Amino acid sequence: MISLWAESEGLDSHGRLRVFEGSNKLYPEKPIAVTHDGGVGEFKYFWFLSNGAKDAKDSGESWQHTVALAIETEESDFDLFVSVMDGRYPTDSDYDFKSTNLGADSVFLQSDHPMF
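The structure assignment produced for this chain is given below.
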């Protein structure tokens, strides 16, 4: 059972609720090996939870997350697309952050970015 409780009186509020698949969860400082057997243009999705923004707002401290991808197969290349806060699946045309380097990719999520 999931319950949503309104915090704002008299406002027509919209949100997005989602249940994430547990098998593709990322954890800080625990890299996982990834095999991508899809073709060019196919996406494989992962997720993680962070209370960094909320905790920093309460304490006034800054925060940063680095999402990094290393390439282990010679001559392979992946691009990294990240969406934040709303649970949507990022694509090459709908994302909040991206890294499209040749080889390793990384995205820095930090408290001083205007999005946060």
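Interim note for the steering committee: Helices lie at 52-59. The first strand starts at residue 64 and ends at 69.
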